[in-house]
Design brief:
With about 150 residues, the protein is mainly β. It has three helices and ten strands. Strands 3-2-1-9-10 form a five-stranded mixed beta sheet, with helices on one face. Strands 4-5-6-8-7 form a five-stranded mixed beta sheet, with no helix packed on it. It is globular, with a radius of gyration of 14 Å.
Length: about 150
Amino acid sequence: MLVGVVSDTHGLLRPALLTALVGVEHILHCGDVGDPAILTALSAIAPVTAIRGNIDEHGPCAHLPATEVVTLAGRDIYLLHDRNALDLDPVAAGFAAVLSGHSHQPLIEHRRGVLYLNPGSCGPKRFSLPISFVRLTIPKEDALSAEIINIV
């Protein structure tokens, strides 16, 4: 299963992101959406699971959950906006992956059999950080694999 992982759109939906996501089977948004129209546009490509980030705590995206567990291709994936707020043991919980945003810094890391993933930001440019998202491949039995895609 091919999944698009995005975060920190901050109300900006880049046409290049929409083009790059064509063909994914599900989209995960790790918070700081900024505008619900972004989720509507993404859902025209594939089903979307989204959580709120710190900028979403008030306003039109405040209804989004703070965390979410989604099962894709038989694998449980935990979404939270700020990885520093992780208050559970992903191994004990049986999660294949922990996905977060917030830092705007893309990261792919494997620890104790769990994939930790931050797609970076695909919204407004910050400092010298890239504009990016992740293509996540979820096989039925092997380890998950991820690729950071720079879109600008």
